[in-house]
Amino acid sequence: MAPLKIIGAGYGRTGTDSLRSALDILGYRTHHMRSMYQDEDSHPELFLEAFNHPERPVDWDYLYNDYDAAVDWPTATFVKRLVESYPEAKVLLTVRDPDSWYKSMRNTVFRSLTTPITSEKGLKSRAMSKVICMDGLLSTIQPNQPMDEIMIKAKYNAHNEWVIQAVPPERLLVLKLGEGWDRLCRFLDKPIPDIPYPHSNSTEEFIRCCEEGGHPYLK
């Protein structure tokens, strides 16, 4: 189904799973971090190789073979290269208040790093995530240890600022958490669906899965 028509530049926990559902409703097939854990042919090892060896060419059509849109990680890590590889693709940057984002990350993604995983696919996807998300920052997170909140939020802000500066404005839409259909559909030249904009993967849902003893994306 590649090439990609939509490139999601926003970090996880900025409404990316809701955006995934919204894009699917609009007719796209959308890649997301949950795809890495759930798809049979998600190739986490190849995304990891692309990150570790940026000088090597990457067959992005192969990595996104069944998709024409992609949001969340690992896509957010490769925005520059994907924008260059798919010059016709539109870019969606989902954002939220840095304090709110950090709190959500702390309560969900950081917490999930210690949930039990037994499948080979899950273990490979977690190993990939720890390296490529925020340039390896996840690999420094330890249970019950203090985190450098200032540094983490600075990395989040720097990423968003870079995207806004680097992506041509005619190709970029910045979406705030909870915005809904209007500006998204206008930007993509799609009719507004007659159903509410989806809301999924909330902090409460994520925590509940962790408390039940599993990784949310393996449920």
Characterization of the model:
The protein is α/β, with parallel strands linked by helices. The protein is 44% helix and 8% strand. The chain is built from 11 helices and 5 strands, in the order βαβαααβαβααααβαα. A 5-stranded parallel beta sheet has the order 2-3-1-4-5, with helices on both faces. The protein is globular and about 45 Å long. The two termini are 26 Å apart. The mean pLDDT is 90.
Strand order of the largest sheet: 2-3-1-4-5
- Order of helical and strand elements: EHEHHHEHEHHHHEHH
> For the report, how would you describe the main beta sheet?
5 strands, parallel
Strand content: 5-15%
Count of distinct strands: 5
What would you report as the Rg, rounded to the nearest angstrom? 16 Å
Task: Give the end-to-end Cα distance, rounded to a whole number of Å.
Answer: 26 Å
Structural class: alpha/beta
Mean pLDDT across all amino acids = 90
Q: What is the count of DSSP helices, taking H or I runs of 4+ residues? A: 11
As residue ranges, the low-confidence spans are none
User: Can you give the helix content as a percent range?
Assistant: 40-55%
Q: What is the molecular shape?
A: globular
